[in-house]
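Hi D.,

Good news: the full-assembly prediction came through. Inputs first.
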Amino acid sequence: MKPSFYNVFVELNNNKKEYILYNTLTRSAFVVDEQVKNILENLDNFDINQLEKQVSETFKEAGIIIDDEIDELKIVKVEYDLNRFKSDYVKFVVIPTYECNLACPYCYVEREDIANKKMSNEKAEAAINFIKNITNQSKGNELSLTLFGGEPLANIDGSFFILDSLDQWCKEKNIKFIVRMYSNGTLLTKEIADELLKHNISFLQITLAGPKKIHDEKRVFKNGEGTFEKTIDAIKIAINSKIPLVIAVNIDKDNKDSMEELLEDLISRGLTGARIMFTPIYTMPHSCAEYEPHCLSFEEWGEVLPNLQKMALDKGFDVPLDPYLEPFFCWAVVKNSFVIDPFGDIYKCTSLLEKKHSIGTLENDGKIPKFKWPYYDLMSRDPTSIDACKACKYLPMCGGGCPALSYFLHGTFHKQRCVRVKPGFDKKIKVFFEESLTKN
Amino acid sequence: MKASIYNLIIPTDNSGEFILYNTLKCSAFVIDEEVKNILENSKFLDGNSLEDNCFQTFKKEGIIIDDNIDERKIVKVLREDSKFHKSYMKFVVLTTYACNLACPYCFEGKGDILHKSMSPDSTKRFIKFVKNMAEEYNRKIIDVTLFGGEPLLNLDACFEILDSLYNWCKEKNIKFKPGIITNGTLLNQEIIDKFVKYGMYFIQITLDGPKDVNDQRRIHKNGKGTYDEIIKNLQMVKKSGIPIQLLVNVDKSNFDRIEELLDDLIKKDLGEILIPIEPVYSVTEACAGYTPLCLRDVEIEKIIPKLWRMADKKGFQLPLAPNKFPLWCGTEFRFSYVVDSFCDIYKCVSFLGKKEHCVGSINEDGKITEIKYPYYDLMARDPLNMETCRDCKLLPMCGGGCPALAYKNYGTYHRESCLRIKGLEDRIKLYLETQFPDKFKN
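Then the structure:
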C-alpha cells in the first residue's frame, strides 16, 4: 500500500498540532495529529504498520492509502471524461439580447461589434428547436436553461417566449425543466417575478458591487446615475416573491475592504440571512481589458474570499461554500453544454463570445449543425496531459482551471490556469469545515 | 489550407489511378497521379492548387483542412465521446467456463483451467443486473450475447436468461437482441426453435477448414472431429432464418486449405452466409504455446486479404466496412460488460478469470459492488499519448488496437497493438470495390 498522491494537510488553528487531512480525489476528510501526518507524508518509505489497524482500514476505505499498482491520475482522467461525456444532462445559456440598460465599466460584452443586438423571433425559434434537438439526442431527462445577457429583461418578450415554449415542451415530454437567470435587477417588477416563479425558476442572480457609494460608481445607468437603490428594491421583490435568489457581490481591489459596510447596510435594510456569493471581477482582452488594474489576481482572490465568507457567515448570511468542495465543473468542456447568442451563433462559454470561438451557427429549423474546429479544440482539453496539472494535488477538484483564461493568457486552451481551487485552498477548506462543524 | 493527415492513398489495379480514403471522415475518392502528388507534396493548398470543384469537395469532405486544425484532437474527442456515450450497452455472459471441445488454440484453456457453471442464483443476479442497467439508463435496446466455454453446456442458464429478458423486454417495450457464440456441436432442432421464438439475433459458429483440417483442431475431448455435426447444425440454423456468422480462424497450418472449405460450404447450401476470416492470435497465457503456429504480421498482410477476396468472389458476405469511430472494439465502451459464471465482471473475454483484470462483481441486488481499479486503468487508455499511434494515419479507425494484446505483450493497456492493421489498406480497397463495383472496372 502507499499513501494517495491527493492527500492535502491543512493545519488547524487550535495550537494542538492537528491537521485536516483532505483527499481531493475521494473528498474524504479526517482530523489527524502530527504523527499520522508524518507517516502519510513519507512517500518513499511508507510503512502501513506504523498506523493502528483500525486507522489503516479506515484510510483504505477512504482512499487515503491505496494499492501500490494504482495510478490515481488515470482515475482522475476517467472521471473527468465520464462527467463531460456521459450526457445525462443538457445545459443551455441563452442570451436573448446583448443590450443592457446599465454601463458598468467592467462589463464583458461592452463591445461595439455586438452592442445592443437583440435576438429576433426567428432566431429565438431556431434556438428553441436546437435546444429540443440536443435534448432529444442526448436522451436526458433534465434540461437546464440559463437566461443571460446583456440584461435578459431588456428583451422580456424574447426571454418569456423561450421560457414558455420550453416549459410547455418539457411538461409534455416529462423532462425536468430547470431555469436560471442572471439579471442586474433594475428592470425586475413584482409581475415579472411572479411570472418567473410560475416557470419554476430555481436560481436568480442579482449583482452588487459594494456599499452604496462604491456600487453607485461601478454599476450605473447609461446616464451615469447609480443603481444601488433600484438593485436593493429588486432583491426585496425577489425575496418577497420567494424566488431562490443569490446576491452576487463583485469583488475587486477597490471594494474588497468595504464589505463590512455593505453587509451592515444589508442587515439594516432587513436582508439578514440572504444568500450571498462573492465573485471576483476579471477581464477579457476582447472587452474590458482596460479594467484590469482594478482586478485582484487569482492568488490575491484566494486569500480574500475566505475572509469575506467568514465575515458574511458570522453576520448571519447564507453563504454557499460547497462549490469549492464539489468536483469542479467547467461547463465549457461538457459535451451537451451550449451558449447561444442573439446572432444565433453557438459557443461553449460566455467568456468566449468571439466569432473565432464560435462552434457553429443556428440553422433555421434548429437542426444540429456540424460543429466547427473550436468545439474539438476545447473539448480535447485534457488536464491529465498538462505537466503542471499532472503534478498538482488539486487536479481532481480543479480540472485544470479555466480554459478561457488559459486562452487569454497563453493563446491555447491546453494550459493550466489555476483560478478557483488552489489559490487560498487552506483557508477556504478551514472555513468550510468550521462551518459544517458548527452546523452539525 | 493543408492536406488532412488521415488521407490514405491506395493504388488500384489500373496504373495512374488511386483510391483516396480519409480514415477520419470515412470519405473516399478515386484520384489520378497529379492529384495524389498535390495532396502528398504541397505544404500549402488553395483554390489554385486544384480545380475549383475538386477543391470545394475536398474541403467539404475533410481531405483538405484549415491550417490551424489539429485533427488528432478531433480523434481524441470522438473517442472519448464514443466511450462514454450511454447509448452503447452490451452484455456478454458466460453461462459456463466448461467446454466439450479441446481446440488447441483456445484462449480460455479449453475449460480445463476453470469449468464453473453459472448457478441459478448467479443467473438471477445477472438478469437483475441487466434490467437495472436498462432501467437506470432508459435503454430502448438490450444486447446480450451468450458465451462460454460452451454456453449450451448450461442450457438452464441460457434459457432462463433468454426467457426472462425476452418477457421483460416485451412488457417494457424494449427491443431484445440476444446472440450466441457457440461451437455448434450441441445445437438441435428444439434449441433452435426456441432461439427463433426469442428472436435470436445471430449465432456465431466456427469452422477452421475442410473436414480433414477442421477435424484436427476443432475436436472433442476424445480427439474426435466436429465437421460433420457442425455442418448439419449449420444447415438447421440456416433453415430457421437466424443469421449465421461463420468464423474461420486462420494460421500457418490451414491458410492454404480455406478455399476447399468455402467450396464445400457452397456445395452444402451454406454459400452467401457472413464469414469473418481472421488470423489466430495468442492473447492469453492459456494459448501461448500456440504462438509458433500463428501467422506473422507480414504473412497476415499477404494472406488474409487474399482469402477475403476469394470469399467475396465466391459470394460470401464479409465484415469489411471500416470502423467509423476511433475505438478498436467494444471493450472500451463504458457500458460493455463481460460477466462470468461467478458474476464477476470483466471488460473483455480474453481477461476472463484473471483477477487483475476484474472490474467488479454483481451483488444480490443486481448492482455492481464497487468499480475496481482495472476499470479506470483500461478506460484511461489514450492512444494520443502513445508514440506509435500519435501520428498514425490509421488511428481514427484503429483506436490504438487491441488493449488485451497490448497487455499481454507489454504488461500494460497503455501501449499500441497493431493487430489486423496488417492488410487494412487491402481491406478498405476490397470494401470500396464491393460497394462501388462500377468505379473499379477490372
